[in-house]
Structure formats: C-alpha cells, structure tokens
Amino acid sequence: MKYGKCRICGAIGKLSFEHIPPEAAFNNKSVRLLEGIDAITKNINGTKYSRISQKGFGNYTLCERCNNNTGAWYGNDFVNWCYQGMDLLRLTNGNPHLIYIHYLCPLKIIKQIITMFFSINGDRFCENNQELVGFVLNRKRKYLNEKYRVYTYFNYEGGTRSTGIMGKFDINKSNLLIASKPIIMSEFSFRPYGYVLTIDSDIPDRRLFDITYFSNYDYDDFRVMSMDMKALPTHTVYAGDYREMDEIVKQSKENDII
Description:
The chain is an alpha+beta fold. The chain contains 6 helices and 12 strands. The chain has a domain at 75-254. The strands form 4 sheets. A 5-stranded antiparallel β-sheet has the order 8-9-10-7-11. It has a 3-stranded antiparallel β-sheet with strand order 1-2-5. The protein is globular.
C-alpha cells in the first residue's frame, strides 16, 4: 500500500500505480531506472542504474479514482496512437522523414499526454496548474488555456526521458549577463513518441511538432490527420536536448566532463 497526495485531484489517500505511458502502450516489461543525482552523473555509456522496476515505467502517483477514470476515458485511443507510431518506426527502420497519416481521436490523446505530465511532476504541479486539472478531469472539456503548448516527436534512439518542470536559458557567450527569456517546460519520452509541455514559453526546438490543436476537437471526434513529425534522439536526461551521441561525447571531452 502506498499513501500520499494524488497528483491530479490533490486528494490524500491510497495511491495506485500509474503506468507512464499506459501498460498496453509497450510499457509491460521491467525497466532500468536512473533517478536523482544518478540521472545527471551517469557515465556516457549509460551503464549505471539506480534500480529496476518490474512493473514497467511508472510510479504511485494517482488515486484510484483518477487512475481509473483517465484510463477508461483516454487510454485505449492513446494506445492505438502508440501502435501507429511504432508501426511507422518499424517500417522506416527508425528514420521517418515523410509526412505520415494518422488515424486518431485527438482530444483523448492530448488528455492522456497531459495526464502523464501530472504523474512525472511533483504533487505541487496540480496546485499551480488548475486549468490542466479541470481539462483532464472533465473528459468533454475542450480548448487548452493559451499559455500551454504540447509538442511531440518520434523517439527511437536513446533512452526514456522523464523530466519535471524546468527552465532552459540560452546564454550569450560574449556577455554572460545576457540570457534569453527562459523556456519553462516538462518532457517525457517513451518509444515511439516523446512529448514536451511548455508554459508561457516559446517552442524549445523548431523540429518539434505542435499538437496543441488536438484540444480543439470534441471527445468523440475521430480524424485522419497528416503530421510532419521528426525523429529526435534522447541520450541525456535534459529536457530539450536532442543531440546525437557523437556530439555529446565531443562536447563532453572538450569540457573535460569525461
């Protein structure tokens, strides 16, 4: 038994194990996890792990009511979306470079994605984002608040990434006092897709595909959509970092990190 605060509704009580993503979306096998400081200080080959989760990727984050409701409302359509993405990665050997057709229920998918962001962030995330709480707990509610944007990409290369809310700055190398407006974001990746949520921020990387418009559809709407999604690697734990491994190794050596 695990007790704590539900990361969606905020109720205190017994928590259920939330698979992130749902178990049927290829998340039904044991996974090796890097947590805390290990996730930052691991060696470049990724051979150091904190622990193994036999249940798959996830944690005790939601009360039974929120877990059961969101799973019943959004889970099946999200799983179908994941199967389509995995088929595309398989058919293209992990290198999709065209505009592909998807068959989906857009509102259900974006609500499941946001449900996952509740679980990968701390229990104060719901307190600070009540608009998102109302969005996922009312299955027919449409239209995300304009300060939120949701992006996606194909993810085939690298490891699973689960990064809570963080800020990203671009620093002017010639004047360290000058920095860009911070990008406030959270990111989660699990093959075949990665997802980025931003709050009052610009897009973190122009290669990301904006799916915020999924929130404009009705709950039962089914659509055939063409999407120009890129395949991006996730070799580090840092949100918004899509460097190839050779670039990471080169920059690490130049900065005496390894």
